[in-house]
Amino acid sequence: AVFGEKDYQQLAVIRRFVRDLDIPVAILGAPTLREADGLAMSSRNAYMTAEERAVAPWLIRALTGVADGLRAGATAADLCPKAADGLLKAGFTSVDYMEVRDAGTLAPVDTLDRPVRILVAARLGKTRLIDNIGVGP
Questions:
Q1: Which residues, in sequence order, are CB contacts of 31 under 8 Å at separation 6+?
Q2: Domains in the chain: how many in total?
Q3: DSSP at 119
Q4: 42 pLDDT higher than 90
Q5: Domain holding 54: CATH number?
Q6: Computed from CA positions of residues 67, 69, 75, 78, in that sequence, does the dihedral angle turn out positive or negative?
Q7: Where in the sequence is the domain holding 45, given as residue range(s)?
Q8: pLDDT tens, 69-101?
Q9: Residue in 63, 60, 67 with CA at minimum distance from that of residue 115
Q10: In DSSP terms, which residues pair with 122 in a beta bridge?
């Protein structure tokens, strides 16, 4: 079965569920499809106004900024709050989370010493957007 990586937490839970219950099925992750400006494709994108849509690419910029910082040796504890603040300054209404997690277990991670997923959920007007990217050491 193929699940999109856009909702990475769901993919990780399904993989764990299949493994724990010994269900004989392969779970594959499909890469997130993106618009030309980097915004993850989603049916939710249609709910945004033109002004909100212009702000939305800040989501991928925040993720890549955290990734670059981790690669440079900074910690998630330092990077994530700054990235969330940047989203708010860019025009997002709120940030539900901006976190770095172990790519396999989803346990919190502070440094880039293993493969991680940087996860974000933020609200832009009435629209809740989610995205994530993978980063390796």
A1: 5
A2: 1
A3: E
A4: yes
A5: 3.30.1300.10
A6: negative
A7: 34-135
A8: 999 999 999 999 999 999 999 999 999 999 999
A9: 67
A10: 95, 129
